[in-house]
Amino acid sequence: MNREDMKNLRQYVQEFYRLFGFLNQNVTPCGFQLSTSQVFSLQELEDRALTIGELAERLLLERSSVSRLIDNLEKNGFVTRTVNEENRREVFVTLTTKGRNSVQKVREQSLLYYESILKGISEEDQHQILTGFKLFTSALENRRKSNEF
């Protein structure tokens, strides 16, 4: 890709980020009253209990940031912390019923949101969007693994 195309890509990524609502830190793009980081945390906890360190690793965030995130989610009744009886220094974070219900609601709301965005786009173009996101995400993962830049 030439330099001019890369500038355009940067501009489109920034515009996507703005239009999708990622700059609003208290509401998900689909309108749910949680931050995107909070929702991602709840989704990671949906199938298993995790430690703060494990969650930080999955979210690609610092432990201290995830700890604050979990403090807030716990205060609002979405998660609980449980001490591991076999290793008392280890604390697991798990979803409460409210947290589980919220994950399900967010999932449904987000699917409706995506449907509303894609409804005016041909199926062929929708598949191109999916393919493009897969390729771009894969490239981002590879770049992170190589620790370049």
Task: Summarize the structure in short.
It is built from six helices and two strands; from the N terminus they run ααααββαα. It has helices at 3-20, 36-44, 52-59, 63-75, 97-118, 123-146, and strands at residues 79-83, 91-95.
Task: Give me the CATH fold name of the largest domain.
Answer: Arc Repressor Mutant, subunit A
Taking Cα atoms only, what radius of gyration do you get, to the nearest Å?
18 Å
Q: What assembly state would you assign to the polypeptide chains in this entry?
A: single chain
Q: Report the span from N to C terminus.
A: 18 Å
Largest sheet: 2 strands, antiparallel
Model regions low in confidence, pLDDT < 50 over at least 5 residues: none
CATH architecture classification name of the largest domain: Orthogonal Bundle
Q: Find the structural class using helix and strand composition.
A: mainly alpha
Shape: globular
Would you identify the CATH H-level superfamily of the largest domain? Answer: Winged helix-like DNA-binding domain superfamily/Winged helix DNA-binding domain
Q: Briefly, what CATH class of the largest domain?
A: Mainly Alpha
Which series of helices and strands comes N to C?
HHHHEEHH
Keywords: DNA-binding, Transcription, Transcription regulation
InterPro entries: ArsR-like_HTH, HTH_MarR-typ, Tscrpt_reg_MarR-type_CS, WH-like_DNA-bd_sf, WH_DNA-bd_sf
Domain HTH marR-type: 2-141
Protein name: MarR family transcriptional regulator
